[in-house]
Amino acid sequence: MPGTAPRVAALLWALLIALTPAAAAWARPVGSADGPADVALAIGLTTAAATATGLWLRSRYRREEAEQRGGGEGGDP
Q1: Phi-psi region of 31 (alpha: psi -120 to 50; beta: other; left: phi over 0)
Q2: Of 13, 65, 69, 72, which sees the most CB atoms within 10 A?
């Protein structure tokens, strides 16, 4: 299913962009910038961004690999 990875990556990025302002508003300061909510928010956003980027790179790598295999021209011997 290499066709679904770009769509999933785009969906994750769209959700990340759409929900970030609301998530940042929930993380109210309680005396320290490194409260549990801030740490959880940072971990969640980093995980979502890494997952979306990984899916995008994987789909791109598979597409290039399929073009090299199926093309029959070019490429290194």
Answers
A1: left
A2: 13
**What single-letter DSSP state applies at residue 33?**
T
46-57 tens-digit pLDDT: 999 999 999 888
**Under a CB-based contact definition with an 8 Å cutoff, are residues 52 and 16 in contact?**
yes
Amino acid found at 45: L
Mean pLDDT of 1-24: 73
Among 6, 55, 46, CA closest to 23: 46
Question: Encoding tokens for residue 77?
Answer: 């011997």
CA dihedral sign, ordered 16, 17, 19, 23: positive
DSSP codes of every residue in 52-66: HHHHHHHHHHHHHHH
